[in-house]
Write a structure and sequence with these properties.
This protein is mainly α. Helix content is 68%, strand content 0%. The protein has one domain. It has 4 helices and no strands.
């Protein structure tokens, strides 16, 4: 029997972070994803941005950070197996 978890099982670790990023990270979707609007506002100088807006940006950005961290761990573990 092979050592370690099955590669398909490892890839399943990406499902929950991906689901969180696509739902919580982008909601509300219309007229544009909320995170995109906050990032545009911040990159445009952030004029008028209040602490609540920064907190909102952190909450909508957290699932994307989680996905990036999980994907990086998955990729490095996969590369180490080869």
């Amino acid at each position: 029997m092979a050592n370690g978890p099955h590669p398909r099982t490892d890839a399943r670790r990406l499902v929950l972070p991906l689901l969180a990023a696509l739902t919580l990270g982008l909601a509300p979707y219309a007229p544009e994803p909320h995170l995109v609007g906050k990032l545009r506002w911040l990159l445009g100088g952030g004029a008028g941005m209040k602490p609540m807006d920064v907190f909102d940006l952190a909450l909508h950005g957290a699932p994307w950070l989680w996905l990036g961290f999980t994907a990086a761990r998955w990729a490095t573990a996969r590369a180490a197996k080869r």
